Amino acid sequence: MSWRSWVVPAGVSDWAAQRSKYLTQFDDSGGTWEAAQAQSSGYDSREILSRVTTSTQAVLRAEAAFERDGVAFTAPQYRWPVLAGLLEVAARDGELKVLDFGGSLGSLYWQHRKFFSGFKVSWGVVEQPEFVAVGKGLDQSTIEFFCSVTEYLESVTPNVVLLSSVLQYLPNPEQTLRELLATPADTVILDRTPISTATSNVPCLQVVPQHIYAGSYPAWIFSNTWLRNQFAGWEIVAEFDGIEPAGHTQNGIHFSWDGLIAQRKAND
């Protein structure tokens, strides 16, 4: 008989076991990014791209309000902190030139498009080649798709960098963030990013609940100290909660999903 049998009231342990099937799991037992990657199914899965494509096409046909993570939503929902950051840039510069890094098929643009009238908008998504190919084939003329930041910068000078639920899935987030902070953009908006009070970043295997789809990927839980150090020379002007519930890794590291808006300091 396990300790749970006598500490947890009858029925509660069964309920907890069932509930855990519907929560995203974060397994940090491997200890390295490489170990998590070796165990993962990967986020270049054809199933993921197929789901995102189908949901985005529903949005373009006005059969859905917006798409997020491959799920089509029938009613509008807005990320007000992100939208506020974007509109502040538009008000300041008179136009919006977004470098949407890891932006899928333009999810955040379609989600908030009703607010982007009255000023010029240039929206460029930097994504994996498979997403770029699909994005360029969509029946739309609003969003441009690029395979790299370098390719994007050859044709557009951004005034804002957007990173929504993407930085944690990069093998070398520090290098990518350094590259993005070096662009001409004076504002960076980070959203839906797992952050803990741990002293260092924690590599995990993120396991998607079966009722969503069968998938797993390597992911980082970022140290709050580490993340703030990346923004040396920038002022963090706003911080806000993400949409995901707080969680913990298999080894008990607690984290929350947070966002921030950072602006380049005038003398840098």
Describe the model:
It is built from ten helices and 13 strands. It has helices spanning 3-7, 12-20, 33-39, 46-60, 80-93, 107-112, 129-137, 149-153, 173-181, 224-230, and strands spanning 25-27, 66-68, 71-73, 95-101, 120-126, 143-146, 160-164, 187-196, 202-207, 216-223, 234-241, 247-248, 254-264. The protein is α/β, with parallel strands linked by helices. Strands 1, 4, 5, 6, 7, 8, 9, 10, 11, 12 and 13 form an eleven-stranded mixed β-sheet that branches. Residues 1-21 have low confidence and may be disordered.
Topology:
Blueprint: H1 3-7, H2 12-20, E1 25-27, H3 33-39, H4 46-60, E2 66-68, E3 71-73, H5 80-93, E4 95-101, H6 107-112, E5 120-126, H7 129-137, E6 143-146, H8 149-153, E7 160-164, H9 173-181, E8 187-196, E9 202-207, E10 216-223, H10 224-230, E11 234-241, E12 247-248, E13 254-264
Helices and strands, in order, run as HHEHHEEHEHEHEHEHEEEHEEE
Question: Count of DSSP helices?
Answer: 10
- Looking at the structure, what is the overall shape? globular
Terminal residue distance: 62 Å
The class by helix and strand makeup works out as alpha/beta
* pLDDT averaged residue by residue: 89
Specify the helix fraction band: 25-40%
